[in-house]
Design goal:
Largest sheet: 4 strands, antiparallel
Oligomer: single chain
Low-confidence stretches: 109-115
Number of strands: 13
Number of helices: 8
C-alpha cells in the first residue's frame, strides 16, 4: 500500500543517511585532479536563511558535478569566528536537510560543531595572500573610523548585527555657558542628550544657519562644563531648529551623525572611551577609569552641583544593542580595515547600465542602483 501523501522527511533522511554513512561525500582518490570548496562560515544569524540555501545549493551542484566526473572532490565545512557563538548543530542539521553533500569528516560524530576552524594555519595563509592582493589592488585600506563597537566581545560589529529597539530611558538638558559672559538674557546654550557621559567628548555646539535666535552667536564660544574647555558655536543644516532648543552638542568621536558634522567643519574627534567602555585619559582625572554608566551617574550629579543641569525627564529612545551579547553598542573611533566600495560599486552599476545584468521584476533595478550609489565603505576588521 502506498501512503496517501509523500513523507519527504522520512524519505530524504533515509537516503541522506545512507549516502553519508557510505562515505560518498569524502575525498578519496588522490591520483585524480583535486576540486575543493571551503564553505564560507555562516554569519551572526546562527541559522541558515534563504541566501545561505541559495549559496549552498550552488556549491553542492558544483561539488556533485565534479565528483561525478571523477575529481578528488572535497567540500570543507568550517566554523564561524571573531566573537560569534557557534550554532553548528542547527546549521549542520539544516544543511543535511538541504541534501548538501559536504565532507562531514571535518565535523565531530554528532555534527555538533565543525572540527575544522577557518583560521587554521593553511586557511590563514590563504587569507593573508588574498588580503595582500586586495590591498595592493587598492580595494582595501586601514583607517581610523567610527564603527559599532561591542565592548563585551571587544570587536566591531556590522549594522546588520545591531538590534535597535525603543526602550524607556531619560533625556537631560545641559547648560553650556558663554565663555565671555551672558548674551542678553542668555547665560549660554542649552543642549539635550540621552548620553550625558559623552559630553566630555564634545567639540562644538551646532545651530541651524537660518535660525534667527542664534544666528548672531555663530563663531562665539561656550565653556564645556566639567571639562572647562571652550568649544565653538557652529552653523550646520543637520540641526533641526524645531526640535528641542534648536542647539545640538557635537561629539564626533561617539556619534555617527556628529562625525559627519565634524568632518564638514574640520573638527578633530575626541574619543573618551577605552575599548572596554570605561572612560580613558582624555577626560578629567576624577572620571578616568569609570565604567560608562557609572560615569553617567557621576557626571549628572556633578552637572547638577554646578547648576548646569537644566532638566531631567523620562524619554522613549531607540537603543542599539549587539545582536550577540545584548549590550548597548558604542560608536567607537578605532583603527579598522575597510573595503573601498567606490570602484566595486561603479562596476556593478555599469554592468546593469550596459544590460549585462537584468532584474526581474524590472523595478528592482532602481532599488539596486540607489543602494550602490549610496553605499559606504565596508568595515571588514571582524570578518
Amino acid at each position: 500500500m502506498l501512503d496517501k501523501s509523500f513523507d519527504s522527511v522520512a524519505v530524504e533522511q533515509r537516503w541522506y543517511q545512507r549516502w553519508e554513512s557510505a562515505g560518498w561525500f569524502g575525498h578519496r582518490d588522490h591520483q585524480q585532479p583535486a576540486y575543493c570548496i571551503q564553505l564560507p562560515p555562516p554569519n551572526v544569524t546562527g541559522t541558515l536563511h534563504m541566501g545561505h540555501a541559495f549559496q549552498q545549493t550552488l556549491m553542492d551542484a558544483l561539488i556533485r558535478y565534479h565528483r561525478m566526473r571523477g575529481f578528488n572532490t572535497n567540500w570543507v565545512v568550517g566554523t564561524d569566528h571573531a566573537g560569534i557563538a557557534q550554532s553548528g548543530s542547527t546549521i549542520t542539521r539544516q544543511m543535511r536537510r538541504l541534501g548538501a553533500s559536504a565532507n562531514w569528516t571535518y565535523a565531530d560524530t554528532e555534527g555538533q560543531k565543525a572540527g575544522y576552524f577557518t583560521m587554521d594555519a593553511k586557511m590563514s595563509r590563504a587569507v593573508v595572500e588574498v588580503f595582500v592582493r586586495l590591498y595592493e589592488a587598492g580595494l582595501i585600506y586601514r583607517g581610523k573610523r567610527l564603527v559599532n563597537w561591542d565592548p563585551v566581545l571587544g570587536t566591531a560589529v556590522s549594522d546588520l548585527e545591531v538590534d535597535t529597539e525603543e526602550e524607556d530611558g531619560r533625556i537631560w538638558e545641559l547648560l553650556y555657558p558663554f565663555t565671555d559672559g551672558p548674551v542678553g538674557l542668555l547665560q549660554g546654550l542649552t543642549v539635550a542628550t540621552t548620553r550625558p557621559e559623552t559630553m566630555l567628548g564634545d567639540v562644538a555646539v551646532a545651530v541651524h544657519p537660518e535660525d534667527a535666535r542664534y544666528k548672531a552667536l555663530v563663531g562665539k564660544k561656550v565653556m564645556l562644563p566639567l571639562a572647562n574647555r571652550p568649544i565653538p558655536i557652529i552653523a550646520d543644516e543637520y540641526v533641526d531648529p524645531q526640535f528641542g532648543t534648536g542647539c545640538v552638542k557635537i561629539t564626533p568621536g561617539h556619534d555617527f551623525n556628529d562625525y559627519q558634522v565634524g568632518k564638514r567643519h574640520g573638527l578633530e574627534p575626541i574619543s573618551i572611551l577605552r575599548l572596554d567602555a570605561h572612560l580613558n585619559d582624555s577626560v578629567p582625572q576624577n572620571y578616568r577609569g569609570l565604567e560608562r554608566f557609572d560615569a553617567r551617574t557621576k557626571i549628572v550629579s556633578d552637572l547638577r552641583a554646578e547648576n548646569c543641569l537644566v532638566s531631567e525627564k523620562a524619554y522613549k529612545l531607540r537603543v542599539p544593542r549587539s545582536g550577540r551579547t545584548g549590550v548597548i553598542v558604542e560608536p567607537m573611533l578605532t583603527d579598522q580595515w575597510f573595503v573601498a566600495m567606490e570602484k566595486l560599486a561603479r562596476a556593478g552599476l555599469e554592468a546593469v547600465a550596459r544590460g549585462e545584468v537584468k532584474f526581474f521584476p524590472e523595478h528592482w533595478t532602481t532599488t539596486y542602483n540607489q543602494w550602490l550609489e549610496n553605499i559606504q565603505d565596508w568595515c571588514i576588521s571582524r570578518q
